[in-house]
Amino acid sequence: MPFEIPSDLHPDLMPLAWLLGPWHGNGQGDYPTIKPFTFEHDVVFAHDTRPFLHYFSRAWITDEAGERVRPGALETGFLRPVGDGAVELVLAHATGYAEVWYGQIDGPRLTLATDIVARTSTAKDYTAGQRMYGLVEGDLMYAYDMAAEGQEMQSHLWGRLKRD
After folding, report:
1. Measured between alpha carbons, how far is 153 from 32 in angstroms, rounded to an integer?
2. Which of 118, 126, 127, 148 is the most exposed place for a label (fewest CB within 10 A)?
3. 3-class DSSP state of 18
4. What is the pLDDT of residues 11-48, one digit of tens each?
């Protein structure tokens, strides 16, 4: 089914319109401080006519057969275009983090990097992140690199989602 841009989408969001909607798929994760894992992933980019997208993401850790084992990451935030292809993203995580990201939209590709990471006293040592989202053959591909637990910035998560 072809994707249609909503008629009430704020004009400032047109460069981000390709992100709109619910997405579902699978991904993989790895990092030097943890065992490699797989996960099922739901992402939604929604709008309400104002000049921002509401982002919501939830994941479930899966076993070798792809069955859900337990809940995984949960995050929500707001993606705002600020002109000339620049964007801001504010995210909050259930694990005790709040982040401010800055990035660039370039056609069907969005790249972001953290500017500020705030964490609660009980959150793990996470200091910086980089994200890339891209539309590839109609699917949403993404990669997330992070610096945490004394490690330098490196690959952590990647996946492919299909529009629901």
Report:
1. 11
2. 118
3. helix
4. 999 999 999 999 999 999 999 999 999 999 999 999 99
Output the CA–CA distances (angstroms, integers) from residue 25 to 65, 83, 129, in the order listed: 14, 31, 22
Structure tokens at 56: 């919501």
Q: What are phi and psi of 88, to 5 degrees?
A: -125, 145
The contacts found for 86-89 with CB under 8 angstroms, 24 or more apart, are: 87/16, 87/112, 89/55
Alpha carbon distance 9, 60 (integer Å): 31
pLDDT tops 90 at residue 3: no
- Amino acid letter at 73? A
**Is the Cβ–Cβ distance between 57 and 93 less than 8 Å?**
no
| Phi, psi of 12, rounded to the nearest 5 degrees | -65, -20
pTM listed for this prediction: 0.95
DSSP-derived letter for residue 12 is: G
Quick: pLDDT tens for 51-62.
999 999 999 999
Q: Is 84 left (phi over 0), alpha (psi -120 to 50) or beta?
A: left
Enumerate the β-bridge partners of residue 21: 45
Instruction: Give the span between the Cα atoms of 76 and 102, in whole angstroms.
Output: 16
Query: Which residue is listed with tokens 């006519």?
Result: 49
